[in-house]
């Protein structure tokens, strides 16, 4: 199977290396790079059109950074009748229904295992479970950078020290805004909802987010005094079968979450991920592993390509859900000790409104949301 690789950074290079080290019948025959960077390897080109018109290429493996032009290239590749495998949640999350509809019309697969949970088979297991089980909620430590910062601050480092260490080790990007601000988790919550619930929020319903920027050692001590710890998480809940409802009801969120120090999540250290979902027959299921890194992410992309080679079928496009804030609720604890109760939307709004005055806020979900 001939593939074209778009992007030759940490993930793209790793994908090329892995397929060179361990032949599995997948050949990287073209590599898209920016103009001026195509020298030295006859497979490299800066011309996307030449890749899309090359009939020998069955799969486009997209490992570029940023939303555009990656999203446009993914759409064009699907329209050209090529399967697409991507690690780029920022490119697909805003337009997943459209991209999956195009894929279905053209009879090709858009696979995005590597976009959430890294090498953990998270999307694959959600899809597999959702064929029969009704999944109604998920929660996950799905951002390795955020978890690394929290883990190191638990050991006494300041936010700045922990971030500098994470950057030196390659666990955080030079610009950590997407990770620390929760935007990476927002995109992961959307692709997770598509796989788990078969629905995504409408474009006019942004996922409410509380970032990690204000996390302090003082707050970690406050939490510890209550027998709690913090983990940076994405979570969601769906009510699919309400009588007379036109669309499933959905609420997604991203926040630092206050959890018991004895919970499974509290034991997740360094840049690891742990994600859980709840099926009505299977009950709770949790998945742990490396959530990022060039080789683990490329490994997840290769798994998608092997599925395509074995005849994976196009996924059903998700429907647009009706927002229902009441599905996610609990309390918020500010660093100054103030507690507020309400829906997660209300608590996230309070964090924005009062954060300067009251400091860091962590969300403590109602026990029904995360119970095992
Ligand atoms: N790294 C991880 O652990 C990880 C984990 C899961 C998912 N992902 C996702 O995987 C994707 C790649 O991540 P990465 O860590 O490999 O990022 P990266 O090291 O920054 O590499 C991104 C690559 O995309 C290329 N690129 C950007 N715009 C381009 C354009 N217009 N034409 C051609 N090439 C272009 C860049 O080229 P230049 O070198 O010229 O800038 C670079 O080679 C991202 O979407 C990321 O969110 C990464």
Automatic annotation (TrEMBL):
Residues 121-306 form the Homoserine dehydrogenase catalytic domain. It comes from the Bacteria. The keyword Oxidoreductase applies. The keyword Protein biosynthesis does not apply. Its EC number is 1.1.1.3. Pathway: Amino-acid biosynthesis; L-methionine biosynthesis via de novo pathway; L-homoserine from L-aspartate: step 3/3; Amino-acid biosynthesis; L-threonine biosynthesis; L-threonine from L-aspartate: step 3/5. One of its GO terms (molecular function) is homoserine dehydrogenase activity. InterPro entries: Asp/hSer_DH_NAD-bd, HDH_cat, HDH_CS, HDH_short, NAD(P)-bd_dom_sf. Residues 7-113 form the Aspartate/homoserine dehydrogenase NAD-binding domain. Keywords: Amino-acid biosynthesis, Methionine biosynthesis, NADP, Oxidoreductase, Threonine biosynthesis. It is an enzyme of class 1 (oxidoreductase). It holds the Pfam family Homoserine_dh. It catalyses: L-homoserine + NADP(+) = L-aspartate 4-semialdehyde + NADPH + H(+). Belongs to the homoserine dehydrogenase family. PANTHER family: HOMOSERINE DEHYDROGENASE (PTHR43331:SF1). This is Homoserine dehydrogenase. The lineage of its organism: Bacteria, Pseudomonadati, Pseudomonadota, Betaproteobacteria, Burkholderiales.
């Amino acid at each position: 199977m001939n593939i074209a690789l778009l992007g030759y950074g940490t993930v793209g290079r790793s994908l090329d290396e892995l397929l060179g080290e361990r032949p599995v019948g997948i050949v990287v025959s073209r590599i898209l790079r920016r103009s001026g960077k195509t020298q030295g390897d006859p497979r490299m080109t800066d011309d996307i059109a030449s890749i899309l018109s090359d009939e020998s290429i069955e799969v486009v493996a997209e490992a570029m950074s940023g939303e555009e032009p990656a999203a446009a290239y993914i759409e064009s590749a699907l329209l050209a009748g090529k399967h697409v495998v991507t690690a780029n949640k920022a490119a697909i999350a805003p337009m997943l229904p459209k991209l999956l509809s195009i894929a279905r019309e053209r009879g090709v697969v858009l696979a995005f295992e590597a976009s959430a949970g890294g090498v953990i088979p998270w999307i694959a297991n959600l899809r597999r479970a959702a064929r029969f089980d009704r999944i109604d909620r998920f929660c996950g430590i799905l951002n390795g950078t955020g978890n690394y910062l929290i883990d190191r601050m638990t050991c006494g480092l300041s936010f700045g020290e922990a971030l500098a260490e994470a950057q030196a080790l390659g666990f955080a990007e030079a610009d950590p805004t997407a990770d620390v601000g929760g935007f990476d988790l927002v995109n992961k919550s959307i692709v997770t909802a598509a796989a788990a619930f078969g629905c995504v929020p409408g474009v006019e319903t942004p996922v409410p987010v509380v970032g990690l920027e204000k996390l302090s050692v003082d707050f970690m001590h406050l939490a510890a005094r209550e027998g709690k710890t913090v983990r940076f998480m994405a979570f969601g809940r769906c009510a699919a079968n309400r009588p007379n409802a036109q669309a499933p009801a959905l609420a997604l969120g991203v926040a630092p979450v206050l959890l018991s120090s004895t919970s499974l999540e509290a034991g997740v250290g360094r840049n690891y991920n742990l994600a859980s979902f709840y099926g009505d027959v299977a009950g709770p299921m949790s998945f742990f592993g490396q959530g990022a890194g060039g080789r683990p992410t490329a490994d997840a992309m290769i798994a998608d390509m092997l599925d395509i080679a074995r005849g994976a079928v196009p996924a059903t496009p998700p429907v647009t859900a009706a927002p229902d804030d009441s599905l996610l609720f609990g309390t918020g604890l500010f660093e100054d000790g103030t507690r507020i109760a309400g829906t997660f939307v209300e608590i996230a709004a309070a964090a924005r409104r009062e954060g300067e005055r009251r400091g860091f806020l962590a969300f403590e979900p109602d026990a029904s949301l995360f119970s095992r």
